Amino acid sequence: MKKPNTQPLSLRVPEPSGRPGDTPDFSHLKLDAPGAVERPEVSTAPFDMRDHAFRLVRVLDDDGKAVGPWNPKLDAETLRKGLKAMILTRAFDDRMHRAHRQGKTSFYMKCTGEEAIAVAQGMILNREDMGFPTYRQQGLLIARGYPLATMMNQIYSNAEDPIKGRQLPIMYSAKDYGFFTISGNLGTQVPQAVGWAMASAYKGDDKIAITWIGDGATAEGDFHNALTFAAVYRAPVILNIVNNQWAISSFQGIAGGLETTFASKAIGYGLPALRVDGNDFLAVWAATQWAEERARTNQGATVIELFTYRGAPHSTSDDPSRYRPGDEHEKWPLGDPIMRLKQHLIALGEWSDEQQEAAEKDAVEQVRAAGKESEAIGTLGQSRPSVKTMFEEVYATEDWRITEQRREVGV
To answer: Fewer CB within 10 Å: N-end or C-end of the chain?
Structure first.
């Protein structure tokens, strides 16, 4: 006999804590105090460190001091290098965003507020290790000294575009810099990274892989397939979830962020998980170092949730004022990664406001010089890769159809 429901069924549609016009409210966040989370041994079984998927690894306190067991105790020169790379990344972003508004490029995506993630991790790992990034890890290339003008050539889609017009402007590819070609399809980079890491281990090589995915893209099947393979085969890979609170225009609750932490998704796969303050350069460094050691000693993959905030629009096609409070980024309780590392260096007596100002001016000049070099070749529509390049690098030996098509085009 069919039993009627006692009340009508309904669906819950998650809503963020604030919409345009609201006062930003982060009171629902549970943030551990700096230094409060213990650092387990790298050999700790995932079952015995499940709490780390719900805690938040932090090193820098409100006074800029490094505290607690996760303090990586970096030397001042390394800290200054990291700070300058973050400053340069932000200066590059600002100029390229303006270039879009000037009609010089068709598209751009900034990483404002997330610079500590790619910069710290790019500095830790070797360039021979392979990174499988999203479109917000430009700091990985910049921290490793990739030519800014070459990045701009791709952004402008000009005649010297290293991708020859085959990718969106910000989807870089640089094997020599440990930067695998960015995919426009959400989530595909994660199984690619796991597969690359498995191949490295299968060959008995010594290189590991690292990948990044946004909070929204964790809802893609590719993410979960990759975690299964990473766990079963103990692939030497670091799996980063960049929880920057917002996908394109939907907040992280749509992907399950209100039900649990994104780091806790690792538990069901038997993987160790760390949840880390993504705006704390030292915390990002320490957690990555922990995961790197685990991967290099054949103990398998680690999932790291990097808790941060997307300060800029999702892309130049996005207007965040339509879906969140305008000043929400300014009220983010974990602050700005550049200012926090600056404060730490000043507290150590290794930096000053004057040095900060000089570093910012130098970054602007570096970007300006690269811009002149690239724009001399051409911006969007002024120059483009040769038409003949569309027929190259398709087959190892040219197929007869390619030959015929080239003849028809006249190249």
So the answer is: N
